[in-house]
Specification:
Bound molecules: 4-amino-1,4-dioxobutan-2-aminium adenosine-5'-monophosphate, magnesium ion
Strand content: 15-25%
CATH architecture of the largest domain: 2-Layer Sandwich
CATH class of the largest domain: Alpha Beta
Number of helices: 14
Helix content: 25-40%
Distance between the termini: 39 Å
Strand order of the largest sheet: 6-10-11-16-15-14-13-12
CATH superfamily of the largest domain: Bira Bifunctional Protein, Domain 2
Structural class: alpha+beta
């Protein structure tokens, strides 16, 4: 590394202070809180890497400097110099005895105070709400989860194949499309999935994934639905539906282990019961759709064979389970056109949804794909999808078709479950909901 390129990385952050007791250092950041106790003043300084308590004692500072305390409001940006001291209650085991303060940017009447605010107000101020303790914890866990997913996939030789956002080939549900007027070419849609493009890519790379925003114009105002959400999609040549479930289970366990390893502090901020997560390192439950319907009926659900399982059914089904549950082989009629017909029972398809425990619902949808050209072409016809938009997709079956499977993992559903937050709107930095597209 050249001297010049190293300089940006010499900046010292709060996270670096744990082994610097007795040394004097300068930090830059935002005032998270201030507090007085007798003659002593406290402030919480946040710099992105963490938060640290800074103590101000009149005898230890110039009085002009000490008096600056009265100008420190929530979110004032400051530069602060002081001596690192041990402290057992803090994130990194240290606090700062302040010597000097410089105000960089004032902040008056910051809208989000420690008192309770309504969720509409908070969502309207999402750009500021993101600075709050719990929101910081969620964003940090989300980022750790994203890295874990990528680490897992790269470790197992997956190739990232980015799929287009603008598309003509409906992947999931023709009712839930955002349409866009595209120059002289007519209507195109925001992608609901990158799956069809991944299927085309497996013949080049074997195992592939894409990870990006996907769009659903569903009129659902539930705590599990966003109109724009991030999905990890993976697709593997020569994998059947069982291999697919095995891989999903290993991926989820890898993510949970990583989170338990690296997110302890943030999960504590969220009051998450980590034992519930640790239990999910045990083998996942696997049951067929038909078994699931039987269990649900015994539990009092009115679901009939052939109907899709709703959120309430998913919660009921997993209420006694400490681990996630795969439900496999759903009726063809309630699933997407590309799923492989189950020869053992042609009313059903070779697919599996992964349902998280504690009522967090479906986090993964996956399936083996129809690899027969004839059957797939027939399914496209049966669903009244415009055949000209699927010719390229059928080529995957025309030129060297193979058994293959894949899945889509809803990132916000996973983050919501792992963080234990009731509504997934807090699991994405700037949520897009039916009734909200700002900020
Ligand atoms: O079950 P879905 O619709 O499956 C697919 O899109 C497949 N093409 C994926 C594949 O096999 N490559 O969506 C996959 C996951 C769901 O299990 C759920 O976690 C999440 O995406 N999801 C949503 N998350 C938030 N808001 C929504 N509106 C969502 N719709 C699906
Ligand atoms: Mg699904």
């Amino acid at each position: 590394m050249s001297e010049e390129s190293k300089r940006w990385n010499e900046r010292l952050y709060i996270r670096d202070l744990a082994d610097k007791v007795g040394q004097t250092h300068t930090l830059e950041g935002w005032v998270q809180f201030t507090r007085k106790s007798g003659k002593i003043r406290f402030l919480g300084l946040r710099d992105g890497s963490g938060t640290i308590q800074c103590v101000m004692v009149r005898e230890e500072m110039e009085s002009q400097q000490f008096d600056l305390f009265s100008q420190l409001k929530q979110e004032t940006s400051i530069r602060l110099t002081g001596v690192v001291q041990p402290s057992d209650r803090s994130q990194f085991g240290v606090e700062i005895l302040t010597q000097e303060i410089e105000i960089l940017g004032t902040s008056n009447q910051y809208p989000i105070t420690p008192k309770e605010h309504g969720v509409d107000f908070l969502l309207g101020n999402r750009h500021l709400w993101l600075r709050s303790k719990k929101q910081i914890a969620i964003s940090q866990v989300r980022s750790i989860i994203i890295q874990a997913i990528r680490d897992f996939l790269f470790e197992f030789h997956f190739v990232q194949m980015d799929s287009p956002v603008l598309t003509r080939s409906v992947g999931e549900d023709p009712e839930g499309l955002f349409a866009i007027d595209y120059f002289d070419l007519g209507t195109v849609y925001l992608a609901q999935t990158g799956q069809l493009y991944l299927e085309a890519s497996i013949s080049a790379h074997g195992r592939v994934f894409c990870f990006g925003p996907t769009f659903r114009a569903e009129k659902s105002k539930t705590r599990r639905h966003l109109t724009e959400f991030w999905m990890l999609e993976a697709e593997m040549a020569f994998f059947d539906n069982d291999d697919n479930m095995d891989l999903e289970e290993d991926l989820i366990k890898f993510v949970i282990k990583r989170v338990l390893d690296r997110s302890e502090w943030y999960l504590k901020q969220l009051d998450r019961d980590v034992d519930k997560l640790r239990q999910c390192l045990d083998p996942f439950m696997r049951l067929s759709y038909s078994e699931a319907v039987e269990i649900l009926q015994k539990k009092g659900s009115s679901v009939q064979w052939g109907e899709d399982l709703g959120a309430a059914d998913e919660t009921l089904l997993t209420e006694d389970s400490r681990v996630p549950a795969f439900v496999y082989d759903y009726p063809q009629a309630v699933k997407a056109f590309y799923m492989k017909r189950n020869d053992a029972d042609p009313r059903t398809v070779k697919c599996a949804d992964l349902i998280a425990p504690e009522g967090f619902g479906e986090i993964i949808g996956g399936s083996q794909r129809e690899d027969s050209l004839e059957l797939l072409a027939q399914r496209i016809k049966d669903e009244n999808l415009p055949p000209e938009n699927y010719e390229w997709y059928l080529d995957v079956r025309r030129y060297g078709t193979v058994v293959h499977s894949g899945f889509g993992l809803g990132l916000e559903r996973l983050v919501g479950w792992i963080c234990g937050i009731p509504h997934i709107r807090e699991a994405i930095p700037f949520p897009r909901l039916m009734e909200r597209v700002t900020p």
